[in-house]
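task queued by scheduler; priority normal; single chain, no ligands, no partner chains; default sampling; output format set to structure tokens
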Amino acid sequence: MVKLIHTLADHGDDVNCCAFSFSLLATCSLDKTIRLYSLHDFTELPHSPLKFHTYAVHCCCFSPSGHILASCSTDGTTVLWNTENGQMLAVMEQPSGSPVRVCQFSPDSRCLTSGAADGTVVLWNAQSYKLYRCGSVKDGSLAACAFSPNGSFFVTGSSCGDLTVWDDKMRCLHSEKAHDLGITCCDFSSQPVSDGEQGLQFFRLASCGQDCQVKIWIVSFTHILARSTEDQLKQFTEDWSEEDVSTWLCAQDLKDLVGIFKMNNIDGKELLNLTKESLADDLKIDSLGLRSKVLRKIEELRTKVKSLSSGIPDEFICPITRELMKDPVIAS
């Protein structure tokens, strides 16, 4: 049974988003305001509406504790508010100045993402209000964002239909076309599907798009990738054990090759030295497509090793040559 219990009609234009905390309801609108209501009786709080934005407010979200509210707008800013008194805590400007379409807190409240119309996504330190890392998708504007329940990675969805997985260092872990006509929303299930086998966690992710479809995904996360830079340097080099290689194969959707690699005692050192000849002649992998996929994944691994061992942030390295950019330019 569904029963309407209350209607709120305080906004003067389209309402774009609503969000719940444990005690409040927040709404935001094209009328440039954010409104806060008590869940006890749906009365508007004395310090509502919250006013700062100079253009439409597209998204609002509470921190997990409910004490902070984030709002983002066409004016290119993401604003943090104290929900208890309506005080504005910080104004964080998108580096590109592009309209901000979506914002989302991490589960531990330490980080906040903001995604813009030009495809840029920013990871902010929500405690110091400073920009931590910035990235961008290849095409389209960002329309959706969701953190995994453990906060180790997050997913963005674009108007071009691309679903992109980022780690907490803003490294792109995976990207693929999910919806033909653009993504409108995505969200994680609060509980992992499983946790334990070979250091993997599996999470359910739902995405919905303008193609009239809702897709359910299983996203795997390797604990190795969530470790500190020092641990990553160890794990992404010749120190990998055969078991680490098996974990890596599973994470790359190459689980069927685990037995072959174990039979041939492939550890980290051997993995980095595999060639198309050794895959065909020594490991007896007959499928050309499968060999090509393995080589492609190994090359991606070598690239990560080079990036981590250099100590240079990935955004300073040319995505094509993987060399340090000395005089970079931005093309329109």
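post-processing summary
- Confidence is low (pLDDT under 50) at residues 223-235.
- The chain is about 15% helix and 35% strand.
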